[in-house]
Amino acid sequence: MKQGTDQPPARADTHRRHQLAIVLSTLLACACMPWAAHAQSGNVSGTVALSSQLVDRGLAVTPDTAVLQGAASWALPSGWSFGVAASTEVRNATPLAEAFAQASRAWQIAPDWQFIAGLAYYDYPGRGNGAFNRAEGSANWIYRDVLTLGVTALAPTGGDDHRLRGAADVDFHWPLPFHFSVSAGAGYAQAQVPYYRVYNDEYGAHRYRNGDRVNSYGYGHLGLIWGQGPWRVEVDRVLVDATLRQDNLAASPWVATITWSF
To answer: What predicted TM-score, i.e. pTM, was given to this entire model?
Structure first.
């Protein structure tokens, strides 16, 4: 049973075209910057990854199933970098699970500290209600590639409520012998998520969307990484508030990813 607040097809199509226009405008702006003429001195790289689930700040973007991810980035000596990425479930390639575009600028503010400011746009075509779609502005302080402190402003572009949200994260990475390293992170976020209710009728119980709500929640992870050359394998223990697990919004407790970079 569909809730009356769901968008009619014509409005949904218009909304989708608007989101696509934002992504294309971002990429076009990146291509037209004055320093684009220095592309020859930049560094272009890419990654392909296979993960057991697509996770976003502790929330499950996809079911617990194999997800194929691809990303490309362009980094300039000036500190600017640009990237695009897409993810899809292996067993169900369309629509995409996630599409992403970002632009960022890095500054060396001290011998051991770096500051990165960025803008990004996330679109989740596989999430029909669009509640997770958003634009983000972030600020990150990085100490020797070991410690990262970040704050983010999130502006929802889908769902029913477009008020600004916030998130804060801390991440730690430490190398170990034999190409291993350990990672840990924790964060707190305000996220707009779809809200469901159970409707009981003569045929049984039915779950339907009843709009969107804002969840303020904590999340974290503890992971072990092995990397050599272009290959990287990571296994994470994902921790999320119990209330999100009760609502079936949380990621799987264990997530594994294998990545090849080129």
So the answer is: 0.76
